[in-house]
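A.,

Following up on our hallway conversation. Structure tokens first:
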């Protein structure tokens, strides 16, 4: 046997051994329930979807999905004393989620969420994130949006009925007292609010509700307790298309629904007196979020066919671009000076124009999470979530827990629930 032949045989044997080892890890290693990812970059709130839940949402895109796994998997820290590993990025729920609320119970963070398909509520303890606890057992199919009240003890479920009317159902979530209820969940009980509420927003303490109802071609705004009681009309407008949010307990931000074809405006509405004040306008495709202290307005508008985000300060009346291309509805004021945003890695072309194409689901994004510090006017990459997870994640409905340990968000593509550990 020649030396060359002998060498080829040895190389072939080694290759076969390596192929066998690789096949073992690929086919036989358990990948369920892990969900561990490393940070995607350097770095130091989520109610029901406001992204056209009753309009078109094709969820098109070429992104990969997680398949059959309940949680995505990767590499991370090792668990200690029988506890699960510390996860940096984790898919908490594979099923479509209508809405969620982070809660802090002692030193533990728990995220409560409602599934779209059957309308049941679950809890996930972030110290054991691969397990979930069923909280309710009432089936309410095809819930498009869920908004939780204070402490997550009541919830608004929004869905379309057979006549294509928007129904909003307020339900209380009783505390389980029996062993069976603890195991199987408790029933939801509640009442219906007015039909065809076009938009709802809840105050930061999750105790007050602002509802926008259509009245012909006009709109009426009503403030109430979360369950719909103690109603008081504080707003009316000949223009029917508005989006609302609460930057703090006193003020409501109202923004005209965005479109690339029209200029939009943003207004402050006093939830007690009903006074109405314009704070920004004249931008195409305008979306905006007001800081809790009302000193800064995060603005996104269309420039050169793409959405750009920046800060508007009423004190000097200037707009400052932050050098990021995203939509304000993909952002969150975590504090008076810190913003987190889902920022697309690329902006695909859209024949129907931005932001319309994104709201309608004609295009979807693959994001990274960025942090904006408005005090020093800096931007910082927190995590390349799409690259790290190997999924195309279009982050929406951002929310943080009370201690700012976690950033929670939904993937607009499939409404799956994710968490990113911040510290």
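Then the amino acids I'd put at each of the 423 positions:
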């Amino acid at each position: 046997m020649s030396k060359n032949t002998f060498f080829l045989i040895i190389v072939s044997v080694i290759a076969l051994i390596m192929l066998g080892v690789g096949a073992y890890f690929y086919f036989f290693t358990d990948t369920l329930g892990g969900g561990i990812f490393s940070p995607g970059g350097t770095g130091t709130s989520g109610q029901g979807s406001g992204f056209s839940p009753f309009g078109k949402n094709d969820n098109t895109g070429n992104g990969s999905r997680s398949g059959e796994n309940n949680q995505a998997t990767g590499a991370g820290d090792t668990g200690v004393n029988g506890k699960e590993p510390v996860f940096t990025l984790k898919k908490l729920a594979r099923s479509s989620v209508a809405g969620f609320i982070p809660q802090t119970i002692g030193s533990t963070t728990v995220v409560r969420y409602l599934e779209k398909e059957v309308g049941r509520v679950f809890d996930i303890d972030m110290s054991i994130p691969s397990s979930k606890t069923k909280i309710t057992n009432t089936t309410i199919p095809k819930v498009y949006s869920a908004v939780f009240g204070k402490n997550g003890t009541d919830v608004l479920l929004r869905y379309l009925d057979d006549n294509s009317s928007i129904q909003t159902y307020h339900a209380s979530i009783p505390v389980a007292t029996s062993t069976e209820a603890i195991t199987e969940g408790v029933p939801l009980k509640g009442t219906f609010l007015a039909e065809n509420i076009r938009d709802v927003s809840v105050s930061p303490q999750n105790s007050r509700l602002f509802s926008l109802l259509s009245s012909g071609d006009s709109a009426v705004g009503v403030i109430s307790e979360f369950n719909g009681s103690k109603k008081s009309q504080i707003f009316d407008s000949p223009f029917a298309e508005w989006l609302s949010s609460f930057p703090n307990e006193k003020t409501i931000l109202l923004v005209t629904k965005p479109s690339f074809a029209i200029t939009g405006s943003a207004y402050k509405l006093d939830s007690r007196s009903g006074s109405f004040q314009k704070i920004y306008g004249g931008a195409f495709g305008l979306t905006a979020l007001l800081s809790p202290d009302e000193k800064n307005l995060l603005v996104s508008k269309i420039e050169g066919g793409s959405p750009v985000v920046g800060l508007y300060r009423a004190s000097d009346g200037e707009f400052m671009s932050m050098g990021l291309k995203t939509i304000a509805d993909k952002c969150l004021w975590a504090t008076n000076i810190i913003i987190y945003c889902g920022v697309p890695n690329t902006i695909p072309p859209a024949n129907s124009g931005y932001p319309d194409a994104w709201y309608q689901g004609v295009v979807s994004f693959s994001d990274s999470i960025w942090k904006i510090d408005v005090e020093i006017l800096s931007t910082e990459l927190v995590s390349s979530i799409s690259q790290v997870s190997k999924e195309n994640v279009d982050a929406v409905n951002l929310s943080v827990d009370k201690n700012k340990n976690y950033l929670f968000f939904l993937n607009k593509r499939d409404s799956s629930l994710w968490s990113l550990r911040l510290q």
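Residues 54 and 160 are 7 Å apart (CA to CA). Curious whether your intuition agrees with the design.

B.
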